[in-house]
Amino acid sequence: MDTLAYLGPVTLFMVSMTITPGPNNVMLTASGANYGFRRTMPHVLGILGGCFVLFAAIALGLGILFERYPLVQTALRVIGSLYLLYLAWKIATAPPPEFGDAEGRPFGFWQAAAFQFANPKAWVMGLTLMASFLPEDGNSVVNALLLAGFAELVGLPCISLWAGFGTAIGRWLKGPRAWRIFNGTMGALTAACVFFILG
Question: Which of 153, 130, 107, 121 lies closest to 60 in space, CA to CA?
Fold first, then answer.
């Protein structure tokens, strides 16, 4: 298969999945605004690392759980939804950042990576990616790792854009009231993702 003809559709798929709103991107926007782009980068890299492991695991057999045991998918939706509601509350009630102060901590690498295993959108993305684009020829492990790696390479600028967007918003917010409105809105948008998960 021609490499460009193969990678083109994969790129389009990953751009459409990672640049559109979802739990990760809403949280990155809130983090960028509250903590700045640099302090949000571990969150960005954690998303990529967690999705890489998840996608590769799906290709190597984890996705069969969804096919054989529908209850696993239901449990994942419930757990993911409850955790999202918790995160939404944390975002909505976060105090305004105090510039020059180290108070408050954004998501770390391992927190963001672990969240992907409870993030139904990441599962749907991984299942669709591997079912649609994983080559049948060659070593299955190598193919899975290469496809997952390329997918995350495409996703990096897309999700970083949301962190940058949040950072830009943070520079315009002045005063505690503006921050309360912004954080409350971001929390509500995070909670709203639950409707798409359970819908």
Answer: 130
